[in-house]
Amino acid sequence: MGEDFSLHYAAPWWLPGGNLQTIWAALFARRLSGLPPVFRRERWTAPDNDFVDVDMTTPAGDAAAPLLVVFHGLEGSSQSHYAQAFADVARARGWGCALPHFRGCSGELNHAPRAYHSGDFEEIDWILRRLKAQHDGPLLAVGVSLGGNALMRWAGEMGASAAAVVSAVASVCSPLDLAAGGWAIGRGFNRLVYTRMFLKTMVPKALQKLDQHPGLFSRERMLAARDLYEFDNIFTAPLHGFRDTDDYWARASAKPHLRSIAVPALALNARNDPFIPVSSLPVAHEASASLTLWQPAQGGHVGFPAGSFPANVQVMPQAVAAFLAAHL
User: Fold this and answer.
1) CA 145 – CA 166 distance, rounded (Å)
2) In Å, how far are 116, 125, 218 from 136, measured between CA atoms?
3) Which terminus of the chain, N or C, has less C-beta within 10 A?
4) Residue 101: its pLDDT value, please?
5) Can you tell me whether residue 70 is helix, strand or coil?
6) DSSP state letter for 7
7) Which of 135, 240, 301, 327 is labelled catalytic?
8) C-alpha to C-alpha distance for 81 and 304, rounded to whole angstroms
9) Known active-site residue 257
10) Does residue 310 have a cis bond before it (omega within 30 degrees)?
C-alpha cells in the first residue's frame, strides 16, 4: 500500500519551520534526478469550445504503461517544481505523465470568461475521461494544493464509478477545507508574502479577462483587492456560479465528500503547512475506508525538502508514486 511517509520524513535540520520548507523547496531545491522532462503540448477543444493545454511525456517503449496525471496548484503549471519532480519520478518508473493546465495557466489567455476554481470537478472529469479514452494503460492521478482539492472533490462526487477511470488518486498539501485555508492565507506573514505573490499574477490575468469581456466585474474593486477572499468575491465565485466567496469555499471544499470516495486514495498534508491549519485536516472518521491519510509533522506547503544541501524535492513524489503503484 506504500509506506506511510509520515513515519520517516524529516526535513533537513537547516530548514526549520513550514515557511522555510515551503519557500526553499520551490526556489532552490533540486527537482530532477537527471535531464529535464521533455513535454509535448496537446491543445484540446473543451466542451465550451475554449481550449485546454496538456503537457505530455511518453512512456519509454510501452504504450500500455501507467499514465500519471498531475493537476497543478493555484497559478501553477508544468514548470512548477512539484510538476517537474512528479514527471521525473514517472519517467524513472517507465510511466507516461500528463500535466493538464487549468484555464489561464498554460501561458496563453483563454477565450471564454470561465477561469478555474478549487472545486472544478467537471473539468477534472472531462480531462480524466479524455486521457482514459486515448491511453492504453491505467490512469493514476495526483492533485497538488488547489488541484488536489478539485481531484478529491471529483473522487467523492463519482463514488464507485471513479474506478472505471482511475486506478488510484492522491492529493498533496490540498486545502480540503477551503474556508480554513482561505482564512490562514489571508493573515500575518502569509498575507504579506504568499497572498501578495498569488495576487501579483491573478489580478493582471483577471483584468485581461475583463478587457476580453467588458462588464464581467468591477475594475475598481479588483484593483482594490488585497486578499484571496476579496478576489474570489469579485471574480472566482460569481464567474463560476457561486453566490459569494463563502458559498464558493463551502460548496467547493472536498472535505465533506471524503466519506464518499470509493477508489484507492491518499491525502498527504504536512502538519506545519503555513496555508492549512492543522485543526482543519481530515481525521479518520471523516474519511472513507478507501482514503489513506498521511500527515507528517514537517514538510511545509508542497515542500518536503530532503537530503544534503541544497536539498531535493523528490522524496515526496517518490512516496506518492509508490502508494499509487501499489494499487495498479
Assistant:
1) 19
2) 29, 18, 47
3) N
4) 98
5) strand
6) G
7) 301
8) 12
9) no
10) yes
Instruction: Tell me the CA distances in angstroms from 73 to 82, 163, 186, 290, one per residue in order.
Output: 10, 24, 17, 24
Question: Is 145 part of the annotated catalytic residue set?
Answer: yes
What is the model's pLDDT at position 1? 59
pTM of the predicted protein model? 0.97
Distance from C-alpha of 140 to C-alpha of 127, rounded to nearest angstrom = 13
pLDDT in tens, 131-183: 999 999 999 999 999 999 999 999 999 999 999 999 999 999 999 999 999 99
- Bridge-based pairing state of the strands 96-100 and 51-57: antiparallel
Of the residues 196, 225, 252, which one is the last residue of a structural domain? 252
What local confidence, expressed as pLDDT, does residue 63 receive?
A: 79
Q: Which of 280, 268, 47 is nearest to 181 (CA)?
A: 280
What amino acid is encoded at 202 in this protein?
M
Say if strands 168-172 and 139-144 run parallel, antiparallel, or are unpaired: parallel
Query: Using one digit for the tens of pLDDT, what is the confidence trace for 311-325?
Result: 999 999 999 999 999
With a cut of 90, say whether residue 58 has pLDDT above it.
no
CA distance 62 to 220: 54
Handedness of CA 225, 226, 230, 236 (dihedral sign): positive
Give per-residue pLDDT as tens, 250-291: 999 999 999 999 999 999 999 999 999 999 999 999 999 999
Domain boundaries, position 156: 5-177+253-325
* pLDDT exceeds 70 at position 26: yes
Q: Which of 273, 280, 290, 327 is catalytic?
A: 273
Cβ-based burial of 188 (10 A; exposed 0-12, middle 13-18, buried ≥19): exposed
Domain count, the chain: 2
Q: Which of 234, 252, 270 is the last residue of a domain?
A: 252
91 and 216 part of one domain: no
